[in-house]
Write a structure and sequence with these properties.
This protein has one domain. Helices cover about 80% and strands about 0% of the residues. Helix 1 packs antiparallel against helix 2 and helix 2 crosses helix 3.
Length: about 110
């Protein structure tokens, strides 16, 4: 069993934080429970070393970035900070997901 590199662990931690925040939003009335469950499944499968899950996760992040870019024009100060987090954190997640150490970790799980 290959030890998970720190960058890979950081990507998964950010992924699980993302999942938890989505479930908190759902509990507060932001619908789409099925979508949240699918995202949780994708993160768990990526954590299990499934390459397809990393690709789906990347697409998910990309869509989130595009949505954040779409809403940045209408954002006020507090909302702008949230939109900024919706840009910076996903970009960091994507970088960590495709870091060479993470790629090597996924290669060892196939």
């Amino acid at each position: 069993m290959v030890k998970m590199p720190g960058v890979t662990l950081a990507a998964f931690i950010l992924g699980y934080i993302d999942v938890i925040s989505r479930f908190v939003a759902w509990a507060n009335g932001s619908g789409g429970l099925l979508i949240k469950l699918i995202f949780l499944f994708v993160v768990i499968m990526a954590n299990a070393g499934q390459k397809w899950a990393r690709i789906v996760w990347t697409v998910w992040i990309g869509v989130g970035i595009l949505v954040s870019l779409f809403f940045i024009d209408n954002a006020e100060s507090m909302i702008l900070m949230l939109v900024f987090c919706g840009l910076v954190l996903p970009i960091v997640q994507m970088i960590l997901l495709w870091h060479p150490a993470t790629t090597a970790w996924f290669e060892c799980h196939q």
